Amino acid sequence: MHEFTVASGIVDSLREVYLVKGFKITSFKIAIGELSMFDKNILAELVKELLSGTELRNAKFSTIIEEALVKCESCGKSYTFKELVKTLNDEEREMIHFIPELLSSYVKCFSCGSRDLKILCGRGVKVIDIELQPR
Ligand SMILES: [Zn+2]
Questions:
Q1: Residues by chain with Cβ below 5 Å of ion ligand 1
Q2: Where would you tag: which of 18, 51, 88, 129 has the fewest CB atoms within 10 A of its CB?
C-alpha cells in the first residue's frame, strides 16, 4: 500500500525535526500532487494514526491537493496540467494521468508548438507550511 509508505515517511521526517532539531511541531499541511494517485483521505487517516503514538500527536494538520504545473522548455511558458489536457478526450486524459510522461505525445505548447514540456510539480507528496515552536 503506497499510502502507508508515504505516511510513514512523512511522520518519520517530522519526528526527526522534533527529535534532532529540537522543535515542537504545532501544525503542518500535506500537499498531495494532483497526479500522484494518492488517496487524500486514506493518507490523512494513516498520518493521523501514525502520529497518535508519537510526541507529535497534538500537531494539527490538513491536506490539500497541489495542482500540477507544466512548463514549456522551449519558450518558457507555464500551464496548469488541466488546461493543457482539456482539449483531449477522456480516454487520453486518463492515460496521461496514469503515465504523465506521455503528455508531450498528446499535447504541444499552445504558444510555440514545442513538445518539450516538463511537469514542474504535482506528482509527489510533500509537507508544507510547518509551524514550529522551540521545545
Ligand atoms: Zn512553448
A1: 72, 74-75, 77, 109, 111-112, 114
A2: 129
What's the DSSP call for residue 76?
-
Could you report the per-residue pLDDT of 76-122, keeping only the tens digit for each? 999 999 999 998 999 999 899 889 889 999 999 999 999 999 999 99
**Separation between Cα atoms, residue 11 and residue 1, nearest integer Å:** 16
Question: Where residue 1 falls among pLDDT bands split at 50, 70, 90?
Answer: low
Q: Sketch out the chain's domains with CATH numbers.
A: 2-67+123-134 (3.30.2320.50), 69-121 (no CATH)
| pLDDT at residue 2 greater than cutoff 90 | no
Give the separation between CA 107 and CA 84, rounded to whole angstroms: 7
CA of 116 to the centre of ligand 1 (A): 8
CA 124 to ligand 1 centroid distance, Å: 24
